């Protein structure tokens, strides 16, 4: 049986690292400021919210560019072709940095 590793996400640290206040940070993933405040205070964050936070604020992909079939493709690549996934991710990040 394969053991999965759960990566802890600290939303307050991510928000502060980006230099955003709660009203700028949370609505970009569809969460109210008060809901985000509760997550930052330790309330358990549902997996879909964690994933949106990761995609938008860690990976830097605007929510408007995310589609359901993209999630399916990402999950497939991560599981069945991890080396290809890492290579594609590195290339995408390199391209994104060169545009900045």
Structure description:
- It is a single chain.
- With 100 residues, the protein is an all-alpha fold.
- The chain folds into 2 domains: 1-65, 434 Repressor (Amino-terminal Domain), CATH 1.10.260; 67-100, no CATH class.
- It is 62% helix and 0% strand.
- It has 6 helices and no strands.
- It has helices at 11-17, 22-25, 33-40, 47-58, 68-80, 82-99.
- The protein is globular and about 40 Å long.
- Residues 1-6 have low confidence and may be disordered.
List keywords for this structure.
about 100 residues, 434 Repressor (Amino-terminal Domain), about 60% helix, globular
Layout: helices, strands, pairs:
Layout (H helix, E strand, L loop, with lengths): L10 H7 L4 H4 L7 H8 L6 H12 L9 H13 L1 H18 L1
The CATH class label of the largest domain is: Mainly Alpha
Element order: H for helix, E for strand:
HHHHHH
What is the CATH topology descriptor of the largest domain? 434 Repressor (Amino-terminal Domain)
Helix count?
6
| CATH architectural category of the largest domain | Orthogonal Bundle
Helix content: 55-70%
Spans of at least 5 consecutive residues whose pLDDT stays below 50 are 1-6
Overall residue-averaged pLDDT value: 85
- Whole-angstrom Rg: 15 Å
Number of domain units: 2
Q: Largest sheet, if any?
A: none
Distance between the termini: 42 Å
Helix and strand content put the structural class at mainly alpha
């Amino acid at each position: 049986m394969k053991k999965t590793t759960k990566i802890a996400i600290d939303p307050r640290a991510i928000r502060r690292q980006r230099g955003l206040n709660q009203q700028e940070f949370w609505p970009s993933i569809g969460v109210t400021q008060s809901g985000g405040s509760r997550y930052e205070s330790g309330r358990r964050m549902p997996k879909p919210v964690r994933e949106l936070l990761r995609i938008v604020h860690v990976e830097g992909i605007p929510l408007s560019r995310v589609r359901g079939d993209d999630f399916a493709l990402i999950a497939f690549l991560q599981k069945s072709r991890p080396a290809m996934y890492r290579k594609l991710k590195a290339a995408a990040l390199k391209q994104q940095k060169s545009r900045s």
